[in-house]
Amino acid sequence: MILINRHMGNRYVSFFFACLVFFGLFHAFYSKIAVFVPALSPFLFPTLTIFLLVFHLFIAFFMAMKYWCDKDRVFLLAIAFAFAGSAILLAGTMSNFPGWLNPYGTHRINYNDAMIFFMMRNIMMACLFILATVLFTLRHYPLTRLMYKFIICGIFIFTATMITLTWLWSSHSSLLSLDLVNNESRQMTVLWSQVVNIILIVLWITALITMLAITRLRNLFWVSGSFLCVCYVITLATLLSSDHVEGFAWYHSRLFETTATLLIIFALLHDVFSLYRVSHLKYQQSYQNSIRDALTRLYNRSYFYESLSHSLSTTSASKPVSVIVSDLDRFKRINDTYGHLQGDKVLQFVANLLMDSVRPQDIAARIGGEEFVLLLPNTPSEAAKQVAERIRLTLSSFDRDTTHGELPEPITISMGIYTAQSPTVTAEECVERADKAMYEAKATGRNRVVVFK
Q1: Which reaction does it catalyse (predicted)?
Q2: What does the H/E/C string look like for 214-255?
Q3: Which of 19, 159, 309, 428 lies most in the core, judged by the most C-beta atoms within 10 Å?
Q4: Which has the closest alpha carbon to 370: 325, 428, 419?
Q5: CB atoms < 10 A from the CB of 401, how many?
Q6: What are the percentages of helix, strand and coil residues in the chain, rounded to 5?
């Protein structure tokens, strides 16, 4: 328990240290470019808003696709709705900057509506983040169809309600009104500075604590989610120091939010590539298991015949293909005397010897109990015989002492060779002829190599 707590503590310390480093670097960067803000101010904020809108749409589609691939992870849907709803409200924010492409126009900017959209966007995202974290705890529990529909409908209704309330509170509707900014003086009201901003900060801190406590930063996905919560806390804290919507804090907060969201996208892309890499490794492992013998890790019978058929399609007198069929002599006596476990060790030892005795382009396979076969492309009969003799002599030189018990006694092998020089010969005929040569080797005394004639 102490080690677990220490590990989790180190993980949290590393997370907050990384956040501190990022915020420090960003603040230093912003301090360098702050002198250019007055010249860029007419269009900087709406430009950053458009970038943020695109980033949030990207994340929303990304989360929706992940949910579509694994519908048991319903918490992804809450995050997808959070960013999709945020993108809609960001589009509403842009409607308050009608002349942003023309910085010298006379269009009136509605800063109060922009702040209302900002407030409601933060409330909606923080609540959905908290909901997603809570739903994460249910990922291993099968949900009933009714509960599943209830959760999805609840997420949709909440998001739609927040967007509707935002529209009603803004100047687009006369039903409700909320004053957060004085459009004439562009000063933030007391309601924003002393009430709304504080509530938003507390809400995001609650989302951060919930995420840290439940997910324990177990992977990059939740690390990026926790980082986003910290970013919004810092963004809102930055606005506490400003009472004017066109002050440095106004641009600082939006630039910070946009940059942080871009980092989240990079983290999500890293997650995608990591999943692809793991999936690719699992596929490779599964493929290797399907073409290899489980005991010896040599290629299996089906892969050998497939490879031999492919090699025979390009065979000619100048590019012969040799097949060596091998069988351990008196192997049944090994199993009967020392047991099948010892017999398996003998097979593994011989398999390793075969793999070490051939070229990378050659194929060593196990096609029977103690029967092995070698495929040697571009190898004439005489060269194949030299390979077989080398393997035979090497194996017969080992005993119990030199193999540290892997061989209970000296083992010998009989080998038959057939070399194909025409594509008209089939794979089955090649193996059959090499097999006849191997049986001739056994019939004439074992522990020898015979070439089919």
Answers
A1: 2 GTP = 3',3'-c-di-GMP + 2 diphosphate
A2: HHCCCCHHHHHHHHHHHHHHHHHHHHHCCCECCCHHHHHHHH
A3: 159
A4: 325
A5: 8
A6: 65, 10, 25
**C-alpha closest to that of 55 among 271, 267, 222:** 267
**Length of the chain in terms of residues written:** 453
Distance CA 254, CA 130 (A): 23
126-160 pLDDT tens trace: 999 999 999 999 887 888 888 889 999 999 999 99
Q: What is the pLDDT of residue 42?
A: 54
Catalytic residue among 184, 306, 370, 389: 370
Q: Yes or no: is domain 10-101+109-287 CATH 1.20.1070?
A: yes
pLDDT of residue 101: 47
Question: Among this protein's residues, is 429 annotated catalytic?
Answer: no
Count of other CB atoms within 10 angstroms of residue 428: 11
Q: Tokens 């900014």, residue?
A: 181
Q: Evaluate whether 442 touches 327 at the Cβ level (below 8 Å).
A: yes
The answer to whether the predicted template modeling score (pTM) of the entire model surpasses 0.85 is no
Domain ranges of the chain: 10-101+109-287, 301-451
**How would DSSP label each residue in 164-193?**
HHHHHHSTT-SS----SB-TTT-BBPHIII
